[in-house]
Structures are given as C-alpha cells and as structure tokens.
Design goal:
This protein folds into three domains: 3-156, PAS domain (Beta-Lactamase), CATH 3.30.450; 240-300, Signal transduction histidine kinase, dimerisation/phosphotransfer (DHp) domain (Helix Hairpins); 310-488, Histidine kinase-like ATPase, C-terminal domain (Heat Shock Protein 90, 2-Layer Sandwich), CATH 3.30.565. It contains eleven helices and 14 strands. It is α+β, with helices and mostly antiparallel strands. α4 (219-269) runs antiparallel to α5 (274-302), α5 (274-302) packs parallel to α9 (424-434) and α6 (314-325) packs across α7 (348-364). The chain has helices at 3-52, 68-74, 151-203, 219-269, 274-302, 314-325, 348-364, 412-417, 424-434, 460-471, 480-488; strands at 54-58, 61-65, 80-85, 90-93, 115-121, 124-134, 140-149, 310-313, 333-336, 343-346, 371-379, 383-390, 438-443, 449-456. The strands form four sheets. A five-stranded antiparallel β-sheet has the order 4-3-7-6-5. It has a five-stranded mixed β-sheet with strand order 9-11-12-14-13, covered by helices on one side. The two termini are 73 Å apart.
Length: 489
C-alpha cells in the first residue's frame, strides 16, 4: 500500500471508530430516555388508580374494590390498565382491553414490589409497569398493571439508527475523500523529491534542486529544504573531490616529469650529473612532502590522526618557530610582537607544524623589506590567541572564504613557483580543529594579512606544573624578559 492509501485508511478507520462510539452512545441514551419517559407516565397512572381504590373489611378480611369508571378515567387509547388481586384473580380492565383477562406481565404478579419491563403480546411490544397495592398495615392486596405500546419508541429508535448509520457512512466516505486529497497535497513534494533524486541518479547531475515555490513550510517543506541543502553540500564535495584529484594529478605529474627527464639525460650522458641528481632529489623530496601532507589530511578526515595530549607552552614554541623560520626570511624582517605565557593541551609537533605553515605562507607573500610579526596573548574566556601578521600583498576579500580549501591558490603562478601545493593552510586549519580551536584570516585592501589561531588554554593546575617543569630544564634558553613576565604572572 502506498503512504497516501495508508494515511487515508488510518484516518477513515479512526473517524469510523469515533462515529461508531458516538452513535452507540446517542442511540442508547435516546432509547433509555424514551423508555424512562414511558415508565414515568405509566407509574404515575398506576399510583393514581391505587389512590382511587377502596379497601373493605368483612370479618377481619380486607378486600380490594375499585370502580370500572375509575380505571377508564386514567386509561387512554395508548394506555392499558389492569387490576388484579393478590391471589391472582382479575378485578378490572380498561375498556381498550375489552374482555382480555390475562395478565399483561404474569411474572410481575409474583413479586411484592413494583417493576417495569417489556413484553410481547399478540406480536406487539408493550412496556408494562406493575405497582403493588398494600394496606396500611403492609398487607399485599393486589396489583395495578399499566402498559403502553412501544411502537412509537421503536419507530423513533429505528429512524435515529438510520440517520446515524447513513450519516456515519457518509461522514466516513467524505473523510476518506478529504483525507486522500489532503494526503495527496501534503505528500506531493515527496514525489518531487523522488523524481529529483531519480533524475540525479540517472543523469549524474548534482546541480538539480527541488523547486520550493508553493511548498508549505511544514515538515515536508523542511524535508525538501534539507534535501536541497544536502544536494548543495554533495555538489560542493563532489566538485572539491574532482578538483582535488585534478590538482593532485597535476602536482604529482610535475616532479615525475622532472625526474624522468633527468633520468633520461643521465642515461644519454652515461654518467652522473650533479645538477640532474640535485634536481631528482629536490623533486623527490617535494613529492614526499606532498604525499605526507595528503596522508595527514586523510587521517584527519578519517579521525585516525595520531595526536599527543601533553602540556605545550606556546610562548616557548613560538620562539622556537621564530628561530627556525629565520632561514626562510630571505630579506623579510621576522619579529616578535606581544607575547604572553600560555599553556595548552595538545601535540607539540603538530602545533609547531601549524605555526610553521602560517609563517612560511606569510613569508612567501611578503616582498623583501617587508615584515612578518608573531604574537601570543591570553584572551578572555580561557583562550590563547596566536597571531601571524605580514605586510605582504594581501588577500582579496572575495578569496578569503576559500583560502583554507585544499589546493586552493590565490595566485597560482606565484605559489607554484615558490614550491607550494596549496595544502599548508588546509593542514593548519585541520590541526587547529583537532585541538578544539579555530583559525581566522583577515586582510586589508591596501595589503597585508593577519591570521589568528585560537586554542583553548589548559587548566590552571596543568599550567602551574608546566611552569615548574620549564624552570628546571637545564638546556632550555628563555629570554630574560619572558622569564620576568612568567614570574609576574
């Protein structure tokens, strides 16, 4: 069964049960009310006759006497009355019973209390009320039976039953039609989603989207929007993967071409050429770095990147990176700006790789005579902020959202000539993320860029232990100004 049919079936079934329960209650209450009204009328007739009856005493024996006109007075065309003595002998009938001298309800004459019940007499249903007649001292003298036909009650109940059944069936059928139309209208976007998915599967076209015009903003509308968002993300990932494969192929083909050309040259020369060997070694190292970077990103994506969780002093690490990056400066002034003591929990080698990637990236895009400044500060909210600022060419605002994508290059010619593959910033971002932090990039239109790395600070207990360990290390050289700053903090 389709979802539409199941929804319509359930809706109709629930409505049918509700109507059935409601109709049963209405039918039962109506029948009970009508019969109760008949009983009240008949019981009042019997009591009126009892009040007009006479009791005579003969030799200490009491007799029940009642005149025929009194019985007829309280009877009517649709009310029958009988009077019986306690010993079962007939006393009087209403005229509408003629010479009928059988009890209207024989079983009721065996009781010493009043009763009411339905009997069938000559094919007609009668409602019979029986009231006993007692003396003042409690002696049972006889009975008064008042009866009325139930044909009017049965007629009303039959008409009500027909109305309830026909109305219930019509309501269920109407509900089924309305439910089907409502389900069809509500689930129409699902058909569109299905058709779009099938078209995407058949045509391999992730650019297709579900039209949202006219779709209500309900659960189905949110599903369509979520499906479009998923398609958009899949399209971006697919395009990124395609671009990734193309960039990897290009980056690997270049060193392989260089190596193959130098090998052919060595083969023709019949001996080792130092320049060719140097070129082969350089390209092989470049390929090794590229494969290592790709492996790191793949492990990070898979969640299997090996990561240490040790206290790391960022100020000491920053000074170490500054010292190692001096060899790459080549005419660019590399300085330390604001620096504070900060300890984080993480992998020291990975954090060092993060800083080296940011510094080397800043040096590549800063011309000779420029300046690259490193800084470290403790920010509010228990965060450490590492800052790398340069006075280079800057980054266009339209390029800022994409600079952390893999193999993305703002100036491809400049980056390739500098030996980069466009993975440095992507690796830096992943390392920051696995440490619970983030990277922000800013650039001014006049030139110069700033990269801020936010990392969560270690608990105070870890900071104190790391400070004690640093002060007892024999081979660690720390500037006097930094030592003074630590003592003051």
């Amino acid at each position: 069964m389709t979802l539409r049919f199941r929804l319509t079936l359930w809706y109709s079934a629930v409505l049918a049960v509700i109507i059935l329960l409601f109709s049963s209650v209405v039918y039962g209450l109506t029948g009970f009310t009508l019969v109760t009204q008949v009983d009240v009328s008949l019981r009042q007739t019997a009591k009126d006759i009892i009040n007009k009856s006479q009791i005579r005493r003969v030799l200490d024996v009491q007799f029940l006497l009642i005149q025929q006109q009194e019985v007829n007075r309280f009877s009517s065309q649709r009310v029958y009355v009988q009077v019986w003595r306690a010993n079962g002998t007939w006393v009087a009938n209403s005229d509408n019973l003629g010479d009928y001298q059988q009890p209207l309800d024989p079983a009721a004459l065996q009781r010493d209390h009043g009763s009411a019940g339905a009997v069938v007499n000559d094919g007609s249903r009668l409602r019979v009320v029986t009231e006993p007649i007692f003396t003042t001292d409690g002696q049972l003298l006889g009975y008064v039976q008042a009866a009325a036909p139930l044909d009017q009650v049965d007629l009303v109940k039959s008409a009500l039953l027909i109305v309830l059944v026909s109305g219930g069936l019509a309501a269920v059928m109407l509900a089924a039609v309305v439910g089907w139309l409502s389900a069809n209208r509500a689930l129409r976007p699902l058909d569109t989603i299905t058709q779009t998915a099938l078209q995407i599967t058949r045509a391999d076209d992730l650019s297709r989207r579900i039209p949202l015009r006219g779709v209500p903003k309900d659960e189905v509308g949110r599903l369509a929007q979520a499906f479009n968002d998923t398609l958009e993300r899949l399209e971006r990932l697919f395009n990124a993967q395609r671009r990734f494969l193309a960039d990897v192929s290009h980056e690997l083909r270049t060193p392989l071409t260089t190596i193959r050309g130098n090998v052919d040259l060595l083969r023709r020369m019949g001996g080792a050429d130092p320049d060719s060997l140097d070129a082969i070694q350089s390209e092989a190292e470049r390929m090794s770095r590229l494969v290592g970077d790709l492996l790191l990103l793949a492990q990070s994506d898979a969640g299997t990147l090996p990561l240490a969780h040790d206290p790391v002093e960022l100020d000491t690490l920053l000074l170490e990176v500054l010292r190692e990056a001096q060899v790459l400066a080549s005419g660019v002034q590399l300085t330390i700006g604001e620096i504070d003591q900060a300890v984080v929990i993480g992998d020291r080698d990975r954090l060092k790789q993060l800083l080296l990637n940011l510094v080397s990236n800043a040096l590549k895009f800063t011309p000779e005579g420029g300046r690259v400044t490193l800084g470290l500060a403790r920010a509010a909210g228990n965060w450490a902020r590492l800052v790398v600022t340069d006075t280079g060419v800057g980054i266009p605002p339209s390029e800022l959202p994409f600079i952390f994508e893999r193999f993305y290059r703002v100036d491809k010619a400049r980056t390739r000539s500098a030996g980069g593959a466009g993975l440095g910033l992507a690796i830096a971002q992943r390392i920051a993320h696995v440490h619970g932090g983030r990277i922000e990039a800013m650039s001014a239109e006049a030139g110069g860029s700033t990269f801020c790395v936010w990392l969560p600070l270690a608990p105070e207990r870890v900071i104190v232990e790391a400070a004690k360990l640093t002060d007892t290390r024999p081979n660690l050289t720390i500037p006097a100004g930094l030592k003074k700053l630590r003592r003051n903090s």
